[in-house]
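Reply to dn_fold:

You asked what the input looked like. This is it:
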Amino acid sequence: MTEPGMTQPNAFHDLDRFVVRQKLTVMVNRYEILRADESFNPGELLAFAEQKRMAFKEQVTFFTDAAKQNPLFGFKARKRIDLGSGYDVTDAAGAPVGWFKKEFGASLLNSTWRLAEAQGGPEFVGKERNQKVAIARRVWDMVPIVGEIPVPFLFHFDFVGPDGGVVLSSTKKAGIKDVYRVETPAASNGWRLDWRLAASMAVALDALQSR
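and this is what came back:
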């Protein structure tokens, strides 16, 4: 039986893994969402996005390619000042796909996010996979001068549902460039998280993690 709000697979629920690859520039962060095989070798470009640094109100739009002519989906902060209010993910026509938000209180020791699809299904909670790394990153950020240097620790996230099953995982690959291996495992009934929501969350984990 399908749980409330967890529809059967469709075109947006059939992607089980992809790679998020960041391209760092002076003023913007550029992200490529690439289909991946079982070994996480990147393939077809699924979406391209840019995030302006120091933006007053966070908004990221995903396009079909770097030409940015055809929008696919995007996410936007609900409020200009209170980023803790969350972010809404919508499709190209503005229809809701889902939402996510950072739990700032719980994130003091371990970065914690919540997300859900738009139709009112269950909420999923994502936390850093390694508690020791989570604490080490916070200590690093608090040390003067050292905190200005990019964090050398890899951070990985797992999002689980009420039953403890993983619906989204993001694993940062070691290397000079920021590359994330993202998986969206299927539930027992075949349901899988909408890949647009998964891609938005994966990019947010890179772009907004320090907010």
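The first strand starts at residue 17 and ends at 24.
Hope that clears it up.
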